[in-house]
Amino acid sequence: MTREPILKIVDVVKKFGEVMAVDHCSIDFERGSITGLIGPNGAGKTTLFNLITGVLQPDSGNIFFKGGDITGKRPYEIARRGVGRTYQLIRIFPKMTLLENLIVVGKGKGEKAVERAMDLLRLIKLIGKKEEYASDLSFGQQKLLSLAQVLMLDAELILLDEPAAGINPTLQNELMDLIHQLNRDGKTFIIVEHDMNVIMGHCQNAVALNYGQKIAEGPCSEIQKNELLLEHYFGR
Amino acid sequence: MKKKIPIWLGTVALMVFLAMIPFFASDYWITLLVLIFIFAVYASGWNLFSGLTGYTNFGLAWFIGVSGYVSSLLIADYNLPWVFAWPVGAVFISIVSIGVGYILLRIRGVYFAISMVALAEGTRELFGTEYLSPITHGGKGVPFVAGIQLSTLYWAILFIAFISLLVCYKIASSKFGLRLVAIREDEQAAETLGIHATRDKILAFILSAFFVGLAGAIHFTYQNYIDPSFAFSIHLTLTPIVMALFGGVGTVFGPFIGATLFTLIHEVLWAELTILYMAIFGGILMALILFFPQGLLGWMKEKGILPRIRKI
């Protein structure tokens, strides 16, 4: 069995007018890895997420998921193939209950979907609020719900956009523990984060972007040694 | 402990009572109820699409007028019995809606609303032209008689209103209905969670077209007349929307309650205060929008008088 990367980004370009949001990026993400995607604001991290999930189409280049070309495919097609993502600004469905937020995502219907949704609510410890509207949850609880939605999709590759932002350290630890548990179960993660403690403490590898270009890539231990390089680009 | 409302028991009992109406009520009440049911189906059909997906359809008259014309012309010019003409009209507009939906549902928000207005207005103009008058009879309209008794027409629209209510209830409780609400809440997020938004929107659009078209076919048979300015009138778009707002957008029973209350209030005001009724009516509508934007059922859900479940 070939150890093909689960996600291959090949020479992808995305321009907005004259601005090069993603500038000839080529990155491989290994199956079963937790990779941090770092860079200053405007580096192209969220744009890259939007390109992978089909929300935006690249101007050139290709994106391969599990060996199949997903370039130009519609978001729902890519999601159904097994790519899930959460957003920087939480995007759950506020006027639907927690249970409905999960059932609407799942494949299949009926009893099985409800059971799976209930299991996930138990996993994120929100089973007691299953009939409450998602808008009634706290910020941190909404983050957990959006992760549960991605799990309901049965995604193999999960893109998390600043999962630790705006939540207290206890909840942060709970969230990261959950990510590690899911990683042990075979899920691959790409995490955009500004909190270097989260990146260095929980990711195996990291990719650094700036002005749409990949400027560094490798195990976190090496990126850490390259801190001088990162300081030069990002400042402190 | 929440009080369980035996919804279906009450609805069936009401339907049985309404079915008996032609046996004891005067023609005035039967015709009033016919109009209530027609507009209830219009409001419910509008709500099925716009209430759930959030795409505000300001061209409801397009469904009504096209289906109404197909049905009325089949009766008037081809002597097709109404029992066939009505469903043909409804199926025709449903099929055309597939193509229209595929194009227009890519546009969001206010631009979608405007494009539907343009479609209704444009079709009205087209149906009045010399070019199409060999088929549509142009601006002079089509007076016709379908050979249907008032009581039969009443039972037909009562039946369709009941089916429409049943379909709305089923959709509201289904995963399809949940997907439509998800599309309203956040279409892009819904897509990235595997929901085929275009397909679901078009399906809801077609269902809306079918029921509204069917009620439209019956409406013009009841009126014994159709012409472009009447068939595609903005009044036929706006009144059902106001009724749905009145009763509660996004609820199942709201449009029916809204249609009933709206028509009864309208009748009372028109009878008692003929000169001032539009002014008072406008005042009521403004108060509604300002103080009860979620409609009667929405307000009752908020206050805990009704449970907050999606099925009602």
What does this structure look like?
The complex is a heterodimer of chains A (236) and B (312). In chain A, 36% of the residues lie in helices and 25% in strands. Chain A is of the alpha/beta class. Chain A contains nine helices and ten strands. In chain A, the strands form two sheets. In chain A, strands 6-7-8-3-9-10 form a six-stranded mixed sheet, sandwiched between helices. In chain A, a hairpin with a 2-residue loop joins β4 (60-65) and β5 (68-69). Chain A has helices spanning 45-52, 75-81, 98-103, 110-123, 139-152, 169-184, 196-202, 220-225, 227-234, and strands at 7-16, 19-29, 34-38, 60-65, 68-69, 83-85, 157-161, 188-192, 205-210, 213-219. By secondary structure, chain B is mostly helical. In chain B, 77% of the residues lie in helices and 1% in strands. Chain B is built from 14 helices and two strands, in the order ααααααβαααβααααα. Chain B has a two-stranded antiparallel ribbon. In chain B, α11 (234-247) packs parallel to α14. Chain B is globular, with a radius of gyration of 19 Å. The two termini of chain B are 19 Å apart. In chain B, 44% of the residues are buried. Classes of the chains: A alpha/beta (236), B mainly alpha (312).
Order of helices and strands of chain B: HHHHHHEHHHEHHHHH
One letter per element, helices H and strands E, the order of chain A comes to EEEHEEHEHHHEHEHEEHH
The N- and C-terminal alpha carbons of chain A lie at a distance of 44 Å
Biggest sheet architecture of chain B: 2 strands, antiparallel
- Give the neighbour order of strands across the main sheet of chain B: 1-2
What's the β-strand tally of chain B? 2
Low-confidence stretches of chain A: none
Category from helices, strands and their pairing of chain A: alpha/beta
The best one-word shape of chain A is: globular
Sequence stretches where pLDDT stays below 50 over 5 or more residues of chain B: none
